[in-house]
Amino acid sequence: MPATAAIAHRLTRRTGDQSFSLRDSPFDREGLNNRLLAEVKPLFTRRASKRYGCFADEATVFKGLLVNWRDQTLGFTQFSTKVIEHLAMLMEQEDLETDGHWLFIEEELEAAHRLWIAQLKQKDGLLLNSDNDLQETGYIDFAKTGLCACIDLHEIDNPDGKRYLTLSFGFGDRPLQQPLMDFFGFTDTVDTQADTERFMEVVSDYAEAMPEENAKRYQKEVAEFCMEQSKEGAAVNYRELAGNVDSVAEVSLDDFIAERAPELKEEFIPDRSSLKKYIRYTGRTKEVSISFSNESLGKSIVFNPETGTLTLKELPSSLIKQLKGE
Questions:
Q1: What is the mean pLDDT of residues 227-256?
Q2: Nearest alpha-carbon partner for 268 in 202, 170, 187, 186
Q3: How many CB atoms within 10 Å of residue 301?
């Protein structure tokens, strides 16, 4: 995981007050750079709300700076500094509040070349030093990471490349989302929800030939496979899926797709929110919270659509004891 260059700058903006602290050179500790990248990448991968796309046709300041850096007109430090300066102007123009360190990491591997940009937040803490003395300290709270962007620098050069810019946002970043997407010049090219729902529709059609119990189990296992791929940051290839999820149907899933839905993408990025209903049914009000496996419906749990009621059998023993007051 070689991080060939890494630098961070701080940008703070409160209403009526703005400041940024710029570092004048990249970090010079390769091991720590790689540790930073090792923290950011899995966090980015695990996020469910990533958006995939590319730069819009219209030129933006960020795109221009990126081109100049790649053409070596700008050095890495100059590039990152100018990005922060323009981000500061954006925050002022949009009257947005923000505080954090903006991390820039260039990652070069044999088969990949990426630029990572992440807004990191700090947290106060305590430490015991070498003299066993208690001290206050601050450290990076990766769980509170804001925007995280990944740019595939190889794919930008592909004339047909439409998925080289991926953005994700942290909790509480809603006011910043659209301004930052405009700043990057981001345009969506992948509708993960539509692709996932279309694929699961085909899976449901395929499972119709199975006994009901097998059909529900199959759909659940397919959804779980897709969910795991998403958590690993990987796309789903339905041919690979067909070889990993057992089917009792006479026709294989890939043959069924070739015949019934040849237009279906062989590979797609799964959307976790669209998959959940194939694994568990969930719902809550202020008074009630319900969650159960989709395989339970029709067996230990019966739904009456006319009355809108659920009948539950085989209640958990702990719940029965609570109801009996034991």
A1: 89
A2: 202
A3: 18
